[in-house]
Amino acid sequence: MRFAGKKALVTGAGGGIGTSIVARLRQEGAVVAAADIATDALEAEAHLPGNLTDRSYCDALPGRAADALGGLDIVVNNAGIIRRGVITETSDEDYALSMAINVEAPFRVCRAAIAIMAEAGGGAIVNVSSCWGLRPGPNHPVYVMSKAAVASLTQCLGRDHAHQGIRINAVCPNEVDTPMIRSGFEIRGLDPDTAIAELDKTVPLGRIAKPEDIADVILFLASDQARYMCGALVEVNGGKPVI
Ligand SMILES: NC(=O)c1ccc[n+]([C@@H]2O[C@H](COP(=O)([O-])OP(=O)(O)OC[C@H]3O[C@@H](n4cnc5c(N)ncnc54)[C@H](O)[C@@H]3O)[C@@H](O)[C@H]2O)c1
After folding, report:
1. What architecture is the 7-174+210-235 domain classified under in CATH?
2. Which candidate in 57, 95, 143, 228 is catalytic?
3. CA 150, CA 102: separation in Å to the nearest integer?
4. pTM of this structure
């Protein structure tokens, strides 16, 4: 029960990785405020549905979570989208939406959460970047730049707010078996199960990640076991580097 009595806000709580984060935090004693477009179906102590493209929703989210749970110890900025294609296939809408959800929302949520945590004497924030935020994968420039921004933001904030007892780190997964990756195969007319089986062969550990593989590292970073980690970018890739 590493998180007994802890209060956590998780964005993208209904997604592949988000569902696993919320379930594991609750299993280990945390109370959780779930944020996503729709949260009705989610098991959590507080439901904060809304759209992360709405600036005022993002600004208010940490405060609403703290009000609902009686404090705020942990924030996981997990929500994200992927828009595919080389730059000449990338629309203004792809750019605006990717930057709003993947970059501006974590910026706003971090800003509001840090103010609350500083007042309370500390806390932990885990941002979800990507291996592609550290080294670019092919044909996804807007996604890659958005995840690089999250990585950079994490390094800056990790240093700036350590003196307030706030630890801010990021996890950087390679491919994870979630709706995000499956939908990409479907768009390309591929059977997701077959495509994932092929992808599994490219990973030295023999398979792409399952959501739990990433959630476990996020929980570690959010826990006291990571008490000396600030501004770290933790790659979780099964031995498969981005080349
Ligand atoms: N799946 C992968 O291969 C992979 C790899 C590296 C990093 N990541 C990152 O992991 C995180 C979680 O991704 P996932 O694979 O679980 O994807 P997912 O699509 O299963 O989940 C994303 C969640 O974010 C929510 N969301 C999206 N736009 C939103 C908005 N405007 N307002 C509120 N909520 C919104 C969705 O409703 C969804 O529940 C993302 O930040 C993603 O970039 C995923």
Report:
1. 3-Layer(aba) Sandwich (3.40)
2. 143
3. 8
4. 0.98
Q: What is the pLDDT along the chain (243 residues), one digit of tens a residue?
A: 999 999 999 999 999 999 999 999 999 999 999 999 999 999 999 999 999 999 999 999 999 999 999 999 999 999 999 999 999 999 999 999 999 999 999 999 999 999 999 999 999 999 999 999 999 999 999 999 999 999 999 999 999 999 999 999 999 999 999 999 999 999 989 999 999 999 999 999 999 999 999 999 999 999 999 999 999 999 999 999 887
Which part of the chain is CATH 3.40.50.720? 7-174+210-235
Confirm whether 57 is a catalytic residue.
Answer: no
Tell me, in angstroms, the distance from the centre of ligand 1 to residue 163's CA: 31
Among residues 118, 117, 125, 5, the alpha carbon closest in space to that of 72 is found at: 117
Which residues have any ligand 1 atom within 6 Å of their CB? Answer: 12, 14-18, 36-37, 51-53, 78-81, 101, 128, 130, 173, 175-176, 178-181
CA distance linking residue 35 with residue 174, whole number of Å: 24
The residues near 31 (Cβ < 8 Å, ≥ 6 apart) are: 6, 7, 8, 45, 46, 69
